[in-house]
Amino acid sequence: MRSGLTVKAVTSLALAALCVQGCSAQPAKEKPASTSSASAAPFLGNRDYVLPDSPFTRDDTVVTATCGMGARYAAVTVRAWDPETWQPRAERTFPIPGDAAFTNYAGAKTVNSPLVDLCGMNPDNPSPYEVATLDYMAPRVRALFDLAFTRMAVVLRDPDNKADSHVGYVVSGAGLDDVVRLGGAAGADEQNAVMSPDGSSVWFTYTAEGGGKRIGSRPAEGSHHLSDEGPAAGHGLPLTVLGKPPRAVQADTVHLAPGGRRLTAKAPKVFGNVFDTWTSSGPLTSRSAHRATLLSGCVGVVGWTGDDRVLCRTSTGTFRIMDARTGRASGAPVSVVDPQDGTVAEGMLVSPDGERFLVAVHEPNARRSDDDYSYRRPDFRVVPTTGSGATTSVVNDLLDTYTMFLSWS
Fold it and tell me: How many CA atoms are closer than 13 Å to the CA of 163, on its beta-carbon side?
C-alpha cells in the first residue's frame, strides 16, 4: 500500500467511499448568478490570506501529495516535510469518493481533473492534459487544495447518468458526512475542479446552456449556487485560482510572483511566459497575453526565485534563471544530469529564498510502466539555483515514484 495508511484509516476510508453524503435536490435547469464582482476589487496576492497555524502553513515547509489505492478505497495522503532533515512533520488524508474522477476508463465519462494526474500510474490512465512533465503537473495538482491544505476539490461522475459530472470537495480526515457534493442541475458538465485559496469555494469549467464553455464557482457552504466567473477555453486546460479576491487563470504552469503582480502561465498557441496578473477570470489567450514576456528557451517554469526572476527548465535540459522583465537569461545554466547517461531532470519547486530548487532525476517516462509498478524511484535532489554550492539528495522511504511535490513555503 503506497500511501502508508493505517488499518484504521483504511477502514474509515472504505466506509467513506461507500457511504458518501447524498446530493441535495436541484432544479432541472440552473441559471448562474451574475459574474462575481472580484474584478472590481484591488488584487492582493495569496500572502494576504490569514491562514490557520499548522505544520502545513509554517515557514520553510515542503508539502507533498501521494494517491494511494486499495481493493475498496482510494485516498490522497498529504504530508508536510522539514526540508533540512526530510522527516515528515504532519500528515493528512483525503478520502476519494467512489464516484470521483481519479481515473479515466472505458464506460465512464472522460473527465479532466488534476486528480487524474496525481493518481495516474500506468499507460492505461494517462494524464488528461496535453503535457505531463512534473513542472506542468505539480502546479495543476497544487490547485486541488486550499492554501492551508484542509480541503481537496473533486469532480464527481453521476452514477445514474454517465454523461453528467458535478463538483464537490473532501475535508481532511473526512468522516461519513464530510464528503460535500455541491450539486448542479441535471445534465451538468462540470470539470477541472479546484479550490479557492481560502477554501471557501470550488471553481471549475462547465458547459453553459447554449453549449459554450465557461468558468464557474460554487460556495463550499450554504446554497452552493452557481456563479459564472467568465469565459473558458473548453475543458482541455486546467484552472488555477489565486489571489484575494480569488480569480481563475485557465492555463498551465501557473505560478504567482512573490509580490502578486505577475504570474507565469502557458497555453497552446500563446506567445509568452510571464504576464500581468488578471483583472478578471478567464483563459490565457493571445488577447489576454498582449503584454507578455517571452522567456527565451524556457520549456517549463519551475517557479519564481524573486519578484523579477524565474527559474526555467530549458530546451537543452538544463535549468536557468531568467529575467522576468526582459526574458533574457540572468545566470549560467545549471546542469543536473549528464545528457549521455539516459536520464532526465524535471524541476518541481523553488525554495522561498530562491536559492535552491527540487528536481526529480529519472529515466524517461519512469513514472509509468508497461509491466508492473516495481520500477526505480526517482532520485530527488536539492540543487542550488546558481549552480554554485552543494547538491544534496532527498531520502525518505515515504518519498516514492508516486510522490508529487506541491509547495515550498
Answer: 5
324-359 in b/e form (b: 16+ CB < 10 A) is beebebbbeebebbeeeeebbbbbbbbbbebebbbb
Instruction: Kindly state the cell numbers that stand for 102.
Output: 481519479
Residue 225 CB neighbours (<10 A) = 14
Question: Which amino acid appears at position 128 of this protein?
Answer: P
Does residue 95 contact residue 16 with C-beta atoms inside 8 Å? Answer: yes
State how far the Cα of 217 lies from the Cα of 106, in Å rounded to an integer: 29
Q: Of 46, 31, 406, 51, nearest to 247 (Cα)?
A: 46
DSSP string, 343-354: -EEEEEEE-TTS
CA distances from 216 to 34, 211, 278 (A): 10, 14, 16
Q: What is the largest CA-CA distance in the chain?
A: 62
Q: In what order do the strands lie in the sheet with 403-408?
A: 88-95, 74-81, 62-69, 403-408
Strands 247-250 and 282-283: parallel
Side-chain-side CA neighbours of residue 82 (13 Å)? 6
In order, the DSSP letters of 210-223 are TS-EEEEEEESSTT
pLDDT tens, per residue, the chain with 409 residues: 444 444 344 334 433 333 333 333 344 467 787 655 444 566 778 888 999 999 999 999 999 999 998 777 889 999 999 999 999 999 999 999 988 999 988 888 999 999 999 997 555 577 899 998 899 999 999 999 999 999 999 999 987 767 899 999 999 987 655 778 897 777 899 999 999 999 999 999 999 988 999 999 999 999 999 999 999 999 999 999 999 999 999 999 999 999 999 999 999 989 899 999 888 999 998 887 778 999 999 999 999 999 999 999 999 999 999 999 999 999 899 999 987 888 899 999 999 999 999 999 988 765 544 444 445 688 999 999 998 889 999 999 999 888 999 999 9
Residue 105 C-alpha cell reads as 476508463
Evaluate the CA torsion angle 226, 51, 116, 342 in order and state its sign: positive
CA 317 to chain centre: 23
Per DSSP, the three-state class of 337 is coil
Question: What's phi and psi for 295, nearest 5 deg?
Answer: -90, 110
CA distances in angstroms from 407 to 58, 81, 108, 146, 391, listed in the order given: 12, 10, 32, 12, 20
Which parts of 37-178 are beta strand (E)?
62-69, 74-81, 88-95, 151-157, 165-171
Between CA 305 and CA 257 the distance in angstroms is 9
